[in-house]
Structures are given as C-alpha cells and as structure tokens.
Design a protein that fits this description.
Shape: elongated
Strand content: 25-35%
Helix content: 10-25%
Mean pLDDT: 90
CATH superfamily of the largest domain: Spore Coat Polysaccharide Biosynthesis Protein SpsA, Chain A
Distance between the termini: 53 Å
Length: 338
C-alpha cells in the first residue's frame, strides 16, 4: 500500500495566515498540523509495512520540500516522493500528478484534518473501496455521500445546494486498485468534466461507482477540521482538550507574573505573561509577550506582543504587535495594530 497526501491547495479560506505558509505547516499548540497528521497514521503505516509516502504540493520550492522531508523522516523514518500541481484546477487534477505511483492499494488523506480514535487498518477491506465520513451541520460546504442500510455508498454529491445528506467526506479514502482510480482521473481530464470549473475527486468517485466499483462508508470517530478561520478556532479547542489529558502543555521555561492560566492552554518556551488572564483554550507560542490582557479561545504565534487587550476567537500571526483593543481579530504575520 502507498499513502498519498495532496496539499496543493492555496488555503484561501485561512488568509492571511496561509499567504506565505502552506496550511499543513501552520503551528497549533507547538506543532505543525502536518506533524500531528503523520503521527495519526503511524499505526496504519506499520500495519501495512508502507514504503511509499507521496506528497502533492503547489509548486517546487526547496524550503517546502526540506520541511516535508524533515517532518516525514523524523516521524515515519522514510523519505517521501514529491509531485507538483502548479495550477489549482481541482483535487482530481492534483492526484493525477502522481500518475507514476497510482497502482496497487492506495490510502489518500488530506492534511487539513486530524483523526482520533480510528483504527483505519481494521476498516480497510480487500477488493472494496472505503470512504470515511462524519455527520455535519453544513453539508453544502462538503462533498457528501448517500448510503444504504448496509453502509454501501449509493451516491456521491459535490457540495449540494439542496439537502441530500449530512454525511460529509472528511478527506480520507482507500482504493483497493490505484490503477482504476488513475484511469478514471485521466478520463475526467481528457473529457473536461468539471464541477464549478474544477476537476473534482467526487466526480471520479461517482463515475467509478456507476461502473460497478463498491464503496463502503465508515464513520470517523473524532474529526478535527482546519478548513477555515472558525473551524481552526473550534478544532484548536478540541485539540487542547485531547492533548491536555496526557501532557503538561505549559512550559516550565515560560515566565508568568501575577497571571492566571485557565486550562486547557498551551504556553510555549520563553513566553512572558504579566498581569493577565489566559484561557481557556488559548495557545501562545514561544517568545510571545502578553501584558495586562484577558485572552480566551485564541491562537497566538511566536514573537507576538500583545498588551492591554480583551480578546476572544482571535488568531495572531508571528511577529505581530497589538495594543489597547477589545474585539475578535484575525491578523497575519508581521502586523501592527495600536
């Protein structure tokens, strides 16, 4: 089996934080999303003795490839293969960039989500394809499926305008035969079959189903989605709740003066917090300075300076400066607000 990780999207729903940083490289509570993502699949990789991990990224850039290499090697212990999707024209087009490796069993997962309490290795069937889903309140934002009472999928729909199902595909797929997937991807692009001006994987899945391929639906136990600003705030809170049960997330190298930390919170190395109330659900990365502030349910990147602020549901990029304001805010790297 091979694992394919498409991360060629521009992450526009998370601007300004993804203008210069790919979404999987965003740091949440001390680690990148990609770091946690790969850790989630260690058991699957070991169970199937997986030897190939393939990334699809938006462009060839040495720094990006070095980051992917370092993270993958440190967690999985192998060197990845990298392909590029220069023009963002859909998920199906991105996957076809890895055409040379689309054979045999494939596990495809998108790294803007994290999964907990799933035994993927036990949910994969011989000669059947598997799609992982979760019930959602806003199905029009996702590709969704309909299935029968036995869990067999009977319809794939891409971002339906009218309600047809609330079972959203969460970005995890198993294909028992990668060659069949590759041929359908080629057919889609050759015949210019688009959905909203893009070549969508959902269209490929529906075509394969109509041709007799069996797809089984499996529920995702805990799905943490980093798709947009609101979701990243909510997912960050879930993440802190999970990790705080096993780890002490407050660094002993942090300096706390006359301040209250309401857990769960992540406080990084060499942060300085004075006369402030922090939490719950706040992450403050290394070397940040917080003074005379009340902050909850927010993400603060490294080297940020905040004073005299009362904030909630906010995201601060690294090296930001923020003073004397009371509101919900979302600012990128190197920003100054007085």
């Amino acid at each position: 089996m091979k694992i394919i990780i498409p991360m060629a999207g521009k992450g526009v729903r998370l601007y300004p934080h993804t203008i210069n940083t790919l979404k999987p490289f965003l740091i949440i509570s001390g680690k990148t999303i990609l770091n946690r993502f790969l850790y989630n699949f260690q058991r699957l990789i070991k169970f199937f003795s997986i030897k190939e991990i393939i990334f699809i990224i938006p462009y060839s850039k040495k720094k990006i490839e070095e980051k992917i290499l370092n993270i993958t090697h440190s967690i999985i212990g192998m060197n990845p293969i990298v392909y590029y999707q220069t023009y963002p024209i859909g998920t199906a087009d991105a996957l076809l960039k890895a055409k040379k490796n689309l054979s045999g069993p494939l596990f495809i997962a998108y790294p803007d989500s994290l999964f907990y309490n799933n035994s993927f290795e036990k949910e994969i069937y011989h000669k059947k394809n598997v799609i992982w889903t979760k019930q959602v309140k806003d199905p029009h934002l996702f590709g969704v499926i309909q299935c029968d009472s036995y869990g067999k999928i009977i319809h794939f729909i891409e971002k339906p305008r009218k309600y047809q199902s609330n079972l959203a595909m969460v970005g995890c797929y198993y294909f028992h035969d990668g060659f069949l997937l590759m041929k359908e991807l080629e057919y889609l692009l050759k015949n210019k079959i688009k959905n909203k001006e893009e070549y969508q994987l959902t269209s490929v899945l529906e075509n394969m189903r109509k041709k007799g391929e069996i797809f089984i639906n499996k529920n995702t136990n805990i799905w943490i989605d980093f798709g947009n600003k609101n979701k990243i705030i909510d997912s960050h809170s879930k993440l802190l709740s999970i990790e705080s049960k096993e780890l002490d997330l407050i660094s002993k190298k942090a300096i706390l003066k006359n301040s209250l930390i309401i857990k769960p919170c992540y406080i990084g190395d060499h942060t300085f917090i004075e006369n402030s109330i922090i939490g719950p659900f706040v992450s403050i990365e290394q070397h940040a300075i917080i003074k005379n502030s009340n902050i909850k349910k927010s993400i603060i990147q490294k080297y940020t300076n905040i004073s005299s602020a009362n904030l909630t549901k906010s995201i601060f990029g690294k090296f930001s400066y923020y003073k004397n304001t009371e509101k919900e805010i979302n600012i990128g790297d190197y920003s100054i607000f007085n």
